[in-house]
Amino acid sequence: METRMARKLPNGNYLVPHLKDHAVKEYKPDGSVVAEFKTPDEPKDCWPFTAIRLENGNTLINCTHANMVREVDKDGKVVWELTNKDLPSPLLNDPCGAQRLKNGNTIICSYGASKADAVKVLEVTPDKKVVWTFKSGKNGGVHEIHVLDAGEPGLK
Questions:
Q1: Do 78 and 70 meet the contact criterion of CB atoms below 8 Å apart?
Q2: What is the spatial distance between Cα 129 and Cα 86, in angstroms, rounded to a whole number?
Q3: Could you tell me the residue range of the domain that residue 20 belongs to?
């Protein structure tokens, strides 16, 4: 049911978010499922949009309409989670894309941030402190992001 942003992993497997199944699945090239990471049933539209395998083996999952980003271990246990309740104001608005930096911070972009004055991209620390935000001054959100220089000590 509605897959999004599938990625080929270094081991040759595929990491595939299944929106309406509330699950991210890792497939072998033959199509067999190696692992499945569930997202919450509530809120109703807690759909996984992007899933990224991190260097530590965990998986970073953006849950779009739930305004949630979570990291799960190989067994699917939540080891880190960010929602608007963790932030000084509701900065997550349909988070579709994210990237974990080498310093442990996470860059998150909001596709639903369509108004010109809305925060489109932000960086948060592992303890959920906002490092910076980006507003473009133009309508339209940011769907995905890829930081080309993710080295220490973070972005300049």
A1: yes
A2: 9
A3: 7-134
